[in-house]
Amino acid sequence: SLSRRFYHPKVIDHYQNPRNVGTMDKNLPNVGTGLVGAPACGDVMRLQIKVNDSTGVIEDVKFKTFGCGSAIASSSFATELVKGMTLEEASQIKNTTIAKELSLPPVKLHCSMLAEDAIKSAIKDYRSKRNGRKPTLGPEA
Ligand code: FES
Ligand code: FES
Q1: What is the arithmetic mean of pLDDT over 78-101?
Q2: By alpha-carbon position, which residue is closest to atom 3 of ligand 2?
């Protein structure tokens, strides 16, 4: 349970009104899906990005978290952060940035790590799909 005594109002807001909750079709060629778990507690998060193939800009983000309030708040905040970023920018997001912004207590740092890992994993999935679509034949072939 989430205690108002210990949590920053911003966490409570993202927890009570999480942004960008949902799923996208993971088979779409421009959707990258990240599914990660937190070894510390066993909680799981899925985060998906929809990328503009020509600009590399993340145009949409959706997440689902089977985890604690801090994990929900972290991923909700992360989706807002990531939307509109290039893949390059998004891959540099650190969990400490998320934790600081939400004023997470140290014991909840791993919850924000889940969000960072999920973003990285979604980017990796998108990139490997995209590489798979690249024509393998050179101009001389
Ligand atoms: Fe209980 Fe994460 S340890 S929800
Ligand atoms: Fe596990 Fe928060 S306690 S993600």
Answers
A1: 95
A2: 68
